[in-house]
Amino acid sequence: MFSEEFLRRLSKEIKAPRTTKARIRAGIMHSLNEECGFLSLESIKKRDSSLVKTKNRIWEKVYARISAPQAVSAFGRIKVLLTPSEFLKKDSSFHLSLKNIPQVLPAVWPQRFVKLTATFALLAIAVRMTPFLFLPSHTVADSSVMLLPTRGEVSISIGGLWQPVTEEVVLAPGTMFRTHAGEASILFHDDGVIRLAENTTVEILDTEDRSKPSSLNSSPTISILTGKVWVQGLIPSHVSGITVSASHGMVTVNEGSVLIKEDNIVDIAVYNRRAVVSYENNDIVLVAGERTQIWEGNVPLIKKIQDSRYEEGWEKQNLERDAVHRKEIAQLQQERRASRAGILPTSALYPVKRVAEKVDVLLTFGSEAKTQKRIDQAECRLDEAAALLSENQDQDAEQYITEYIDALIALSDGTSEEGFTDLLLQNSLITSSTDIAAALPDDNSYLLKLAVLEASVALGNNKNSYELEAILLMDSLTSINQLIKKEEWQVAYDNWIKIQSSLDLFKQQEDLLPVDVRKETIALLESFAQIAKENEQGFAGIDADFVNQVVVYLPVDSKTSDTVSILSEEEISSVVSGIRERIFVYHMQRSRLNQLISELKALEGHPEEGRVLRRLYTELPYGPENFPERIQKEITRLRWEKAVEI
Q1: Which of 44, 166, 562, 644 is the most buried (most CB within 10 A)?
Q2: Residue 376 CB partners (closer than 8 Å, separation 6+)
């Protein structure tokens, strides 16, 4: 808006003479008297040209007022402000003589200080940005727990209503679904897969990626309400496994394949590696070829899986699927590591990358942050090895695998703040071992798994060298068994020859191994001997004496009994403690005796019946019930029945 002063001045400057006003008025009145009654501005313009001049003067004033200023740079504005006006330039008092200006020394050092400060700041920024240009960004593999309908009708509960599922669905904790005349699979990240048979109902309880030590109690992964599920785990034994909650207990699977049936009685059968059954605060370790049943109040019996069950439709189909799925996951894990390696040693820029890593550590503040940065750089060596292995450069890859192990050992030995350093190293090893758990000796990436295991042993991560050899032996036996099933006789035979030194060490140090590791290794050896004997003709052309060498690993009682004796002293103690607690729940003498009779009946046929009775004889007090005498009679009965000394 124009100011009032401007408008007042404008009215004075363009005021028309009185004669002009009179002529304009006369013209207007004349036009109003015309028939058309239309005011013609053109006629007014023609009658007096002074009106045009007046209009031009008005618009000149308006244009000058509203014309947009031209864009001026910041330096231009400063120049205008500092430049004296023409009036000052012409004023003689403004002109100063140079003689009146005092002579001062040039300020050289402030200029140099400013230049050095600016140069250092620019250099620091450039150096700090260098690692981001040459170092790979750390990404976390993020995947969801997925439900895949594979055949027939599958339904999912949404808001209490069952809806059909025809495509992949992302599952969240609390999701419930069931199969009808169909099947479905649940993919748990890279940790494993659960397959549902027909007429099975389950609920998802936990969708977190398995990355916690197994000593930490984790929540169940899934709950089976009815039907049967097949669980394949691809998780190291020192990490929390996939846990299936059933009506009378829980089953935890790390590396292995397990069939679980729920129908008031929970039936668990292990077809590959091992599983742990938790029942009434007791843990029962099952290995390949073993099965058990649990229900309320029973003493679980561990029996052998009949050979015919391996050839049944669903079991055989799942074993074949497991082999394919494990191979795919192993390949995926290697590709994931290779993709985040960044610049490889084969690149001309690799020396720049290594310098950038040192600069990155130098510019990182805080001992914990520096340690984590060095661990990440050690992991980068493993990623580079994965990329080189994918390019079949095994010798070059071994160099960086060795550098990875040496870097972690140096971190463990070279710090005084052992608390958080050990924790960071342990978390790194858990993550790394989980990322490559699916690899077996016939996979290209097995060297990576071996490196992580060796680093774990070197850092004392709850493993000793004997256990490492046992783990490698178990992996090799698993791989050999699969090769025999695929009729790759020569490769299986060559791999068997390679593991002879590990097998000799296992025989020498068997007693030093944990019970579950020893038991699983023996079970794999028995399975290998059994498969080799069944395929004797395939090895005949390679080594005629091969089968005779391996039959010594067959179980002694394979033809005489289908029951396995496997309970340790700790497990026997747990069974006896449970029996005692259930007896002394009652306060009446008759009730306690009735409970003892029930417990003794439940023990009948148990492979460890004699050991349990002997322990009960020493654990139960005499009292009015005279428990030891009753136990002694039961032991005598069992001796006559077995006709052997117990």
Answers
A1: 44
A2: 138
Residue 510 DSSP one-character state: G
Q: Is 205 helix (H, G, I), strand (E, B) or coil?
A: coil
Whole-number Å distance between alpha carbons of 418 and 165: 52
Instruction: Count CA atoms within 13 Å of residue 378 on its CB side.
Output: 25
- Quick check: 333 and 190 in contact, CB under 8 A? yes
| Tokens coding 165 | 């599922």
The CATH number of residue 210's host domain is: 2.60.120.1440
- State pLDDT tens for residues 565-586: 556 677 788 888 888 888 888 8
Q: What is the pLDDT of residues 497-506, one digit of tens each?
A: 888 888 888 8
Calpha distance 355→51 (Å, rounded): 83
Give yes or no for a contact between 257 and 321, defined as CB atoms under 8 angstroms apart: no
- Round the average pLDDT of the chain to a whole number and report it: 78
| DSSP β-ladder status, 242-246 and 201-204 | unpaired
d(CA 305, CA 282): 22
- Asked if 191 contacts 232 with a C-beta cutoff of 8 angstroms, the reply is no
51: amino acid identity, one letter: L
Distances (CA, A) of 359 to 129, 363, 406, 424, 431: 10, 6, 20, 21, 26
Q: Which two tokens stand for residue 537?
A: 């003709």
Query: What is the rounded distance in angstroms from the CA atom of residue 411 to the CA atom of residue 417?
Result: 11
State pLDDT tens for residues 265-291: 999 999 999 999 998 888 888 998 899
Structure tokens at 530: 């059994």
Q: In this structure, are 8 and 64 located in the same domain? A: yes
Does residue 432 belong to any structural domain of this protein? yes
Q: Are residues 78 and 199 in the same domain?
A: no
With beta carbons less than 8 A apart as the criterion, state whether 229 and 260 touch. Answer: yes
| Number of domains making up the chain | 4
User: 249 and 347 share a domain?
Assistant: no
- The residue among 192, 204, 190, 177 whose CA lies nearest residue 275 is 192
Burial (Cβ within 10 Å: 0-12, 13-18, ≥19) of residue 286:
buried
Helix (H, G, I), strand (E, B) or coil at 187: strand
Q: Which residues pair with 510 in a beta bridge?
A: none
Q: How far apart are CA 204 and CA 225, in angstroms?
A: 11
Same domain for 297 and 153, yes or no, is yes
- Whether 352 and 298 map to the same domain: the answer is no
Range of the domain at 300: 146-311
In angstroms, what CA-CA distances link 157 with 50, 162, 519, 538?
90, 4, 41, 51
Say yes or no: 45 and 159 in one domain. no
Task: Return d(Cα 448, Cα 389) in angstroms, integer.
Answer: 9
Q: Pick the last residue of a domain from 463, 479, 512.
A: 463
Q: Mind spelling out the 3-state secondary structure of 227-273? A: EEEEEEEECCCCECCEEEEECCEEEEECEEEEEEEEECEEEEEEEEE
CA gap 41, 28 in Å, rounded:
9
Give residues with Cβ within 8 angstroms of 559, minimum separation 6: none
